[in-house]
Amino acid sequence: MRSLFQQFRTQLQWAALIALIYLFIIGMRAAHIIGSYEMGSIVMAGILIILAVSLNLVNGFTGQFSIGHAGFMGVGAYLGAICTTKLGLPFVVALLLGATMAGLVGLIIGLPSLRLRGDYLAIVTLGFGEILRVIFLNWDYVGGPRGLMGIPQYTNFTWVYVLAVLTIIIIRNWVNSAHGRACIAIREDETAASAMGVNTTLYKVAAFSIGAFFAGLAGVLFAHYYTVIIPNKFGFLFSVEILIIVVLGGLGSISGSVLATLLLTGLNAFLADWPYPRMIIYSLALIGIMIYRPSGLMGTRELTLPTLQQKRSISEGGQQGGAA
Fold this sequence. Notes:
The chain has 13 helices and no strands. The protein is mainly α.
């Protein structure tokens, strides 16, 4: 009973912190301390958090090597934009349809390809991402190489913030469930997990589909914030950018993905006035972090909030030490 109470109190602390961060950013925006450019960077950081956390489920917690995540984002972006621009459907419906279609595409791709491992899987996911990019590039209905324009700007900070928090909560709960432990067992030793009765293909496909679902969700948000989408945005380079965030934060750490996203987004915004040396400084910063933190910023650890019970235990320990 005590443990349940502590868990509930910790959840309340996290809820209060999440609400305070939201109110702080909204207040800074209302006071014009945060401008349009800074708010755009914050919104993009939220979209990248959804992408990085969902890719971490595949690459970090399940131990697969996917580099086609931008392709699933493109599926969600284009379908969501078609729903609102061509069909006149509500934004909520576009979010659900875009994310669901990306998840289904992930399921279709995952069933045959996730029987592969390592570099072979990476090549398959890379090829899949390029196939999607070429399809969008030659599809006149969505503008072809010119891209799809005139998308209504439904996405705002509130939508991105709420959906980023929901993504973290859902994937964290999945990881901490029996299904998540099966995925971690596959990451540690797939042969041993299979010998213990874990259906490795099922869980790899499930993780792949869930990751694709949230990538599609991020794509819909992206399309309806920037109002224009072009096929080249969802190519190989953007998939590598997401992968860098996951590796930098720590494979197997949701908190690490969030921190790495905020760090890299902040670094890009800070160096915006130096366009030429920006990529050199950006690259040197990445190299330095990976030299001194090869397992990433967080490794496999997660951020935790100190509870009152922990503080009391520390205080009592200090008093006992002083009395001794």
